[in-house]
Amino acid sequence: MAPNDLDSRMQSPRPETPEPSSKQGRRNAQLDAQLLDADGAISDKLECCLRHIFAKYCTPCPPRPPRQDSTILLTPPDDAILDAAGLDAWAQDTNGAPFSEETKEELREFLDVTEEGELTFKGFAQIYQLQTENDEEETWRDLSNHGFDRTLTLVSTRREEEAESSHSPFFVSCTSGYSHSPSERECQ
Fold it and tell me: Which residues 6+ apart lie within 8 Å of 44 measured at CB?
C-alpha cells in the first residue's frame, strides 16, 4: 500500500464536520460554573443563585427590583421563610407541580424548618445540596427554570418577564423600592 493511499483513507470526506464525541462551537465554549466546592459543599456562586430563587417566594419579601432590570439578584431577609404558599409556588415554577403532602412532611422532618414547620433558607439550601450530590443535571435544570445560565449568571428571560406581567407571587406581594446596584447581577 502506497503512503498516499493510507493518508486518503484516514482523511474524513468532510473535515469541517466534528466527530460525534466532540462539541461544536468550541471557540465560544465557557466552562460551567462549579455547583459544589472541593469539599462537596454548595459553592459561593450557587448559594447566591439559591438566595435569589428563595427570595422570589419567601416571607417577608425583599425589596422589589426596578421593572426595567430583571437581572438583579435578590437577597432574602435574614428571617425569611418559605410558608406553604411560597413552597407551593416555588415547586410549581421549578418542577411544574406543587409538592404532595407526603413530600412536604418529609421536608419538615429532615430539613431545617421553623417551629411552625416553615422552610428556612438553610433548609432550602439543604434540598439543593442533596439534589446536586445525587443529580447535578437536575440542579442545572432548576437553575435554568429560574433564569440562570451555566455560568450561574442571571439572564433576562421571557419566562421571568411573563411572570412579572402576570403578577407572580413575588411581584404581587412586594411593592417597596430596590437599591441593589447592577454590579450585583453575578456573584463573584
Answer: 37, 187
Q: Contact, 128 vs 119, CB < 8 A?
A: no
- Peptide bond preceding 60 in cis form (omega within 30 of 0): yes
Closest among 91, 94, 60, 64 to 76, alpha carbons compared: 60
B/e letters for 117-129, b = 16+ CB within 10 Å, e = fewer, are ebbbbebbbbbbb
How many angstroms separate the CA atoms of 138 and 53, rounded? 15
Rounded-to-integer distance, Cα 66 and Cα 156, Å: 13
Percent of the chain with pLDDT over 70: 63
pLDDT of residue 168: 44
Q: Write out pLDDT tens, residues 66-77.
A: 665 667 889 999
Q: Is the pLDDT of residue 27 over 80?
A: no
